[in-house]
Amino acid sequence: MKNYIKNNLNFIPLKTLFERSLIPEIFPDPxxxxxxxxxxxxxxxxxxxxQHQRQWNYDFDIDNLKPDRNSGKMFGVxxxxxxxxxxGYLAAFSGLLGGKDRWPSFVPPVSDIFDKKSFFRKGEKEIxxxxxxxxxxxxxxxxxxxRTELIKTKDQYANELNRFKIELKETxxxxxxxxxxAISQLNKEEFSILKDKLENQSRKEKYDLKKNKESWLNRxxxxxxxxxxxxxxxxxxxxxxxxxxxxxxxxxxxSYQFLNNTGEIxxxxxxxxxxxxxxxxxxxxxxxxxxxLQYAFINNMKPLAIAEFWWGQSPxxxxxxxxxxxxxxxxxxxxxxxxxxxxxxxxxxxxxxVSSSDLHIETIYExxxxxxxxxxxxxxxxxxxxxxxxxxxxIKNKYPQATGPLxxxxxxxxxxxxxxxxxxxxxxxxxxxxxxxxxxxxEYIALLKGTIKSTEGMIDLPLIEDYNERPRQCVxxxxxxxxxxxxxxxxxxxxxxxxxxxxxxxxxTGRTHQIRVHAAHYKGLNTPIxxxxxxxxxDDRLYLHALSIEFxxxxxxKVISFKIKEDF
Length: 568
Fold this sequence. Notes:
By secondary structure, the protein is of the alpha+beta class. The chain has three domains: about 10-110 and about 255-345, no CATH class; about 135-250; about 355-565, Pseudouridine synthase (2-Layer Sandwich), CATH 3.30.2350. The protein has eleven helices and 20 strands. The chain has helices at about 15-20, 35-50, 120-140, 140-185, 190-255, 270, 290-300, 330-340, 390-400, 425-435, 515-520; strands at about 10, 25-30, 75-80, 85-95, 255-260, 265, 300-310, 325, 345, 360-365, 370-375, 415-420, 440-450, 455-460, 465, 475, 485-495, 500-505, 545-550, 560-565. The strands form five sheets. Strands 10, 11, 12, 13, 14, 17, 18, 19 and 20 form a nine-stranded mixed β-sheet that branches. Strands 1-4-3-7-8 form a five-stranded antiparallel β-sheet, sandwiched between helices. A hairpin with a 5-residue loop joins strand 5 and strand 6 (about 265).
């Protein structure tokens, strides 16, 4: 495919009947489709350009992928038809590239906030000056000297007060001993004199303690008075900076004005005010998809299909693979794209080609208290937004007299394998407790796209929900919950092409998407499970299977185990 880098529009010559037949009639839903063939063609051309261009110097380090470099970036292509009915594509990158938001052959940003003469640059300078004033005060010798003296004096006061209290306790104990001895040794008049003397001594010690505390507190108060002069200046400057930052942020959000196919314009502020976030997140509107659609609408081009791909290093927290296609981000882009795609009919694809009504639940074991089933890939564990059909609904219909929540644990929709069903509430509670205490033993088997060099190991990557990209999970050593998975290589050259690996996973914890993230993340096996539409590449199914399970029967209290072989 010839590359025409000209005015941001890169024309794709559709010479063959096959190529022309690829032109989509309906715009594929960005969040629910595999990349359109024309998008793949455009992406391949763009990737070749990125690899060989000499205009910018940005280290993607493609030839030597190193962990923790975090130098990757999301790029996007939009297939469009112009006013002359020519088919071409637009290209964009998310955020900044090489410190700039504009480069030849890429569409411009939605808002020119990074222009040298923009309101943002002016406001940024004003905020920077305030920050420098704050730093100047906080690093001044006078301020540091007073802070140091205040800390030192407070420590001395605490030590002195503690020493005084210990002495008071000791002298009080001595007075008690003297008083007790005097009862048997002195007459009434002598005892009365001694008692008055001891009480006077106690009062004096308390008075001395009070005066000592007052003296220290006066010194501390004087230091607070001295430092408050500086602190007031710092607080006033910080308040001023905060107000300027808030005002500047609102100006930024208002400057992002997004068009749609109907000609309607909405600012980022307007778009996000009715969402759960209410305020646009930082960087909203700087992703590739909004840039591409904005340029198309402004230039009277008809959007036909869109796709985004990752180029370079994976971030440390989320899973991103070099050259893999990903849907636009949800936290920043979904509300914006909902507005921008208004008036455009979206074509949604089913990631799973078989209807759930054609799927059969196989019963492996059943008694009065529990059922063990083999869940097929493509069936929900419990009813949700995708479908009402689920394991729970089917079991409820089949056993209307059963009590309790029935589904003890869940498998992802596209994961197949063993599930435990409780017929009674007591059975549910007993088995659920075993899951909570991680005493249930489970094994999974998966097919990975790629070959694994090692034969076994332990993956220890703490996980937390990616709140902006639900239901995705991400790795976080600061806030994530412990997640550990043992793994063993079963076959390193599996399949006709010998480029797959079969791996046994033994989770030690039960976090959402644990095996999927541990397989795909570069600090795990760095090889996504085949068919993983969240962390890898979609396929006819997710090739992950719950192979075996072992737990204590809720009534007999005997250890029971079950195993069902995978069908791949």
